[in-house]
Amino acid sequence: MATFELYNFGCRASQADGAALKNQLLQAGLVEARGMDSTDVVVLNTCTVTAAADAEVRQVIRRVHRQNPQCRILVTGCYAQRAPEEIAGLQGVSWVVGNSHKHLVADLVREGVEGEVRRPRLGVRPTLVQIGEVGAQDSAEVQVGEISTEFHFAPVFPDDRTRPTLKVQDGCSARCSFCVIPSVRGRSRSLLPASVVEEVRRLEQQGYKEIVLSGINLGSYGRDLGRRIDFLGLLKRILTGSSIPRLRISSIEPMDVGPQLIRLVASEGRLAQHFHVPLQSGCDRILRQMNRRYWATQYAERVLEIREQIPDCGIGADVMVGFPGETDRDHALSVHFIQSLPFTYLHIFPYSRRPGTPAASHQDQVNGRVSRKRSEEIRAVIAGKRQAFLAAQVGRALSALTLDETLEGDRVALSSNYLKIVLPMSHVAPNRLLDVLVGRAHEGLLYGSEAIAAQPLHEGSLFENLHIGCV
């Protein structure tokens, strides 16, 4: 039997795509390998949000081909959709499959492996063929086209033993000036609500306690479904149509974090007390240049409303530094804005010039050294905020899910408000909901002990003996 190795890059939605790809490859009769050295096929499910993401993929391709020149490499995902010619020109690449054809990956691999008489490929440089045409000897087959409006979906096949990601939305109809994602993912489209609930029930029956709902622009869920349902309505339908103990919302845009959504998270113990709301910049001038659809004051109103209604909520954001034209004053305004809000963590990254985006043509690109310095300034601000938030949890009981992760032999759990908690001397298995009494905070982690164990998934009321919610 042919073997494969799958590598995922990028966001939660991409990780969900990777889980679906793995399921398809297994169903097609391939067997998962133990490493790239001996596998027949390597599948790379790529990201292209930054130049660094592209470079990482190219590095992996070179390493695979060097270590196993007989291996055939398939590159799919966002990078494949954006730059198929560039990827097809790399040694060892046999297939380039864009997001437009990602759902056909398993068929392409099976047909290619079954129909191939294996031959050495060392030193052979594949050449690009016409899109959709089967490659000739020693050439890459390329399958890239227009992104359809169909939501290509395969059931989640979780690698994660504790927190599977369910992608309910794909694509983006916004046009942020720095972002290449709309061109490689297509317009926003949603998985039908009945299918979402069915998938949640399936994962629940498999014993999962937490599901992460993800999308490329999650808050736009339902806008392509004739206004019959929106993201808030989807959450309510999942809560009433299933008994899943915990739902976690992945990244959601600030203008989609309305008062009703905040109230629902505050009042419903089955929703994780956690919001990740991309900011990008705290300076209105830069927000306008980015084509973001809010002012800094509007963003602040939503974050402060979250903190008021959910005092111990984990609140995170994405922050970009070094956007073209960003001055020292713009950066200072952004730093001051971040200081004023109750963030508990940030994802900070320098602007990356993406071909074909409006921002890429700006003449006033910011020097990389300046961007790195600005990143460090913001990191210093958030480090203090995070330490204070961790210290505030000491002495409290937090609802947490045990992960398939240990630290020096001790089980690690993830709290509802998105904090890692180490459980010294605990022998509890992964995928258990517990109340954990936090004893101390040390070097960015919490340490605690099990307080009250959750009831098994189908034994009585799920929440009779569990203190879940805002603590």
If you had to describe this structure to a student in words, what would you say it looks like?
With 471 residues, the protein is of the alpha/beta class. The protein has 3 domains: 3-143, Methylthiotransferase, N-terminal domain (Rossmann fold); 165-391, pyruvate-formate lyase- activating enzyme (Alpha-Beta Horseshoe); 394-453, Beta Barrel (OB fold (Dihydrolipoamide Acetyltransferase, E2P)), CATH 2.40.50. Helices cover 32% and strands 22% of the residues. The chain contains 13 helices and 18 strands. The protein has helices at residues 12-27, 51-67, 78-82, 84-88, 105-114, 181-185, 193-205, 231-241, 259-267, 284-290, 296-309, 328-339, 368-393; strands spanning 3-8, 31-32, 41-46, 72-77, 93-98, 141-143, 165-170, 189-190, 210-215, 246-249, 274-276, 314-321, 345-350, 397-407, 410-415, 420-423, 433-442, 445-453. Strands 2-1-3-4-5-6 form a 6-stranded parallel sheet, with helices on both faces. The termini are far apart. Mean pLDDT is 88; it is low at 117-137 and 453-471.
Descriptive labels:
13 helices; five-stranded mixed β-barrel; Rossmann fold; disordered C terminus; single chain; 471 residues; 3 domains; alpha/beta; OB fold (Dihydrolipoamide Acetyltransferase, E2P); pyruvate-formate lyase- activating enzyme; six-stranded parallel sheet
